[in-house]
Amino acid sequence: MNEDLNVETMARVAGEAGVTVLQVAAVARLLQEGNTVPFIARYRKEVHGNLDEVQILKVQERVGYYEELEERRAAILKSIEEQGKLTDDLRDKIEKCMVKSALEDLYLPYRPKRRTRAMIARERGLEPLADIIWAQGAESPDAAAAAFVDAAKDVPDAAAALAGARDICAERLADMAEVRGLVRQAFATRSVVKSSVVTPRPAEPTKFEQYYDFEERLADMPSHRFLAIRRGQAEGVLFMRLVVDAAPLVERIEEMAGVDARSPLADELRQAAADAYRRLVAPACELDVTMEKKQASDRAAVEVFAENLRNLLLASPLGEKRVLAIDPGIRTGCKVAMLDATGKFLDNTVIYPMQRPTEARETLARLVARFNPEAIAVGNGTAGRETEAFVRATLKLLDRKDVVVVSVSEAGASVYSASEIARDEFPDLDLTVRGAISIGRRLQDPLAELVKIDPKAIGVGQYQHDVFQPLLSAKLDEVTVSCVNKVGVELNTASAPLLTRVSGIGEALAKRIVAWRNENGAFRSRGELKKVAGLGPKAFEQSAGFLRIRGAANPLDSSGVHPERYALVETMAGDLGVTVKELVGNGTLASRIDVKRYVSAEVGEPTLRDILEELKKPGRDPRAAFERPAFREDVTTIDDVQEGMTLEGVVTNVTAFGAFVDIGIHQDGLVHVSELADRFVRDPAEVVKTGDKITVRVIGVDRDRGRVSLSARTRPRGPEARGCAQRRDAGPRRVGGEYGGRTVSSGFTCNPFADL
Hints:
- By secondary structure, this protein is α/β, with parallel strands linked by helices.
- It starts with 6 loop residues before the first helix and ends in a 45-residue tail after the last strand.
- The chain is globular.
- α8 (about 115-125) crosses α11, α13 crosses α15 and α15 (about 265-315) runs parallel beside α22 (about 470-485).
- The strands form 4 sheets. A 5-stranded mixed beta sheet has the order 6-5-4-7-8, with helices on both faces. The chain has a 5-stranded mixed barrel with strand order 11-12-13-15-14.
- The longest helix has about 50 residues, at about 265-315.
- Among the domains are: about 5-110, Orthogonal Bundle (Arc Repressor Mutant, subunit A), CATH 1.10.10; about 125-300, Tex N-terminal region-like; about 325-445, Nucleotidyltransferase, domain 5 (2-Layer Sandwich); about 640-730, CATH 2.40.50.140.
- It contains 29 helices and 15 strands.
- Mean pLDDT is about 90; it is low at about 720-755.
């Protein structure tokens, strides 16, 4: 931890993160020592007081903020001191400042500036006249300015002299931290966002029509609505501005300037105050507040994306089952790939169910007989439902009720197919075959396959293209790493992309592990990891507990028990009079262990209880058991959908205004937030998550626009749905968003951008 972060700062971090000062210090120290967040959360619980990953990440983020603040503070103090302008009072203000924007306000008067009107006025010798105006004396303006008229200095008359002096006064006011703080606070808390359509008005309808003449308080505006208007502005359809009542602000600035109504120079200072607000302070503060709202909206959108991604990555795996995977197609046929229980590619072919159904049925029958798949994965893209129906009919003819048919999301499969990872895995296969393999592997283990794809291509985001991309990438990487380490990784079958996400293992080291495995065969123990070039003690410490070796001589190598605690488990087994092999997986024996007996200075009760759970169920998978969705076989296109139908579906995306649900047709339907539950819901994530299987009722179908509106309520919507700004009789409105290339439906009963 940076030594400049004193106890007061740590206390501030503790308050913001909802933890204690000691926990902040412990986490900061562990991070500084090179430990990863998953390792700290899982294997150092005693050190930081049993914090979870979310709390640790919050501490990490806030500590980083204040470290950056301290670095900036030091740079500002040095700069002002070098200018010879650092007073004790200014130093005290800078040292006490704990907000970056306020710190920059203090530095503003001393920051190197571009050539300003006030600078030009000073060069013309008008600073003394500005001082006279600032002092609010008894002299008249013309009399005060007469001495400064000088044609040689481009000051031809008293009016020009007074104008230049006012420019200097205006800049003085604009440089006052108190003035900027006042105006910034007003824009942040009292401003109204006003959006209007550009001129000339677009000839064609746009998805931003509801914002052609729109206004809402900035402080009340939900993040998704702000991002929608920003997108409209970026696309040249909307013009957006923040509006605030200027009169009371200018009046307050006049008071700060010390305007004396009795002075003949009062009006000059009033003009300077108005000019400072209009020309210098308001535009800068409007930009600052707009960017702060954008950053907050970005964070909210990123959190939505991150939560959706987490649920998708932790989706139930089919497990080690033989899978026949089909990437549907009409003109080019359906690409078929056969995978063994470990995901190894065995064979591939192409069938044409639409054009040559008899031949396709015979080919599929031969494949089923030859490979005896336990499941058939069918991509949910174009012709997906038709292909799924064809497969079910074929299996029925073959009397193979034991084979499960599952519709699998294709989102991002084409991105994987063309990626360097796919080329490395299958250099001799066509892109379309690689796509089929990816679909099959997604069914077997969603996490292991989806880590190969850029999360932004998976299609579970909200305004993902509009947010600050480094922020989005960092958050999604954080979520992926968290999920991989939560589940654990089988060392002898994991791909390099999956190993890259393991705590302590980067891309280069992951490739070395795979290369060592290819050259030497399967790892027989976790200890053999140390033979991999470049994998030192720290990397082993951070990664070993998250890696599994099924069938290892030491059964602890297939568990979540860290190697540093193997000796402790051996002691436990010895005290029970059994071997470690007899203890691991025996819940009855493990239940006899009194964890308090083994508490020491190095190992506390939280870690001991984790060890106990691992001994009961070694290498347990935290993901739920697989359960296939049940789509209605008679509903395959939007033409089959009728109002009043009750359907089963799978949540594919959760946004701030509702949830999109796959009901087995080519478009996802929308359940607006007001239709998610019988009670009032502000945040859809309170009710559903990506991957959930839910029952919905069709409440609207717009076939012309390909939109379906759904409800998950069990009774009609009542007055509690007060967040709804547009009733059903107002007609459908369009979503101003993109969802990873997926076709989405709306036909809203409520405006999705209404105040939620």
